[in-house]
Amino acid sequence: MSAAANESPSKDPLTRDRVLAGAVALADRVGIEGFTIRKLATELDVRPMTIYHHVANKEAIVDGMVDRVFGEIDSPPADSDWRSAMRKRCRSARRVLGDHAWATPLMESRTTPGQETLHHHDAVIGCFRRGGFSIEMAAHAYALIDSFIYGFALQEASLPAPEAGELADLAETIIEPLPTGMFPYLTELTTEHILKPGYDFGDEFDFGLNLILDSLQSAAGRPDQ
Fold first, then answer.
1. Distance separating alpha carbons of residues 33 and 18, to the nearest angstrom
2. Is 23 in contact with 65 (CB distance < 8 Å)?
3. Hey, where are the domains in the chain?
């Protein structure tokens, strides 16, 4: 009896899109380290070899997963000024990477990028070029901004207490037992900033992003650029 005959006729037919959607959902739960084809087959309720009828191998699946993540990120709108457009894109990237924490180290790792990946890169470069950036400055700007986004996403994902209130509680737990006068600057920062009402580590993203955008605007306007 064939594998197809063993599968329920009421099941949605397996397609490349369904394989990749299932793969992203699985990675969201178990991380990329725990991701296996056998687990994906269980997720999809098919036999493992059936998956390879639609996607060639595991690397191709990861390529497609990353491409789907890029497809979720808002491209910078072409009808906005470059700063507003880039701010929208960067905030979207942070949200998407927060939803798919496994993807952050993989976003720029693929040697066979998909159409969504290529479209997104082209749109970001186009935003800088329409904003008056030289080709060289566009390259500098893209590298700097994405280094910030990916680094912030990794840091945010690794926080032991992701919620603002939890982080303040943790900071207080660390500082409270320390002898008075030990680590004075760390204690000052914790008590006078982190433990203040309304503190949210996530606010550092907009502060850093605005600082980068200001610096890029200044650098792009130099006579020697």
1. 21
2. yes
3. 3-55
Query: In whole angstroms, what is the distance from residue 165 CA to residue 200 CA?
Result: 8
Q: Report CA 57 to chain centroid distance, whole Å.
A: 24
Tokens at 205, concatenated:
């993203």
Token pair, residue 212, equals: 């980068």
User: Whole-angstrom Cα distance, residue 198 to residue 165?
Assistant: 9
Q: Which two tokens stand for residue 107?
A: 């976003």
Nearest of 155, 184, 189, 156 to residue 171 by alpha carbon: 189
**Tens digits of per-residue pLDDT, 130-160?**
999 999 999 999 999 999 999 999 999 988 7
What is the Cα–Cα distance from 101 to 201, expressed in whole angstroms?
17
Q: Helices marked H in the chain — which ranges?
A: 3-6, 16-30, 37-44, 48-51, 58-72, 82-99, 115-130, 135-158, 164-175, 184-189, 203-220
For residue 46, what are the contacts with CB-CB under 8 A and spacing of at least 6?
7, 14
* The CATH number of the domain covering residues in 3-55: 1.10.10.60
- Both structure tokens of 177: 């037992």
What is the DSSP secondary-structure string of 1-37? --HHHHS-TTSPPP-HHHHHHHHHHHHHHHTTTT--H
The label of the residue with tokens 């969504």 reads: 116
Residue 124: closest CA among 210, 116, 223, 64: 116
Q: Which two tokens stand for residue 148?
A: 């910030």
**Pick from 98, 68, 106, 101: nearest CA to 201:** 98
pTM listed for this prediction: 0.86
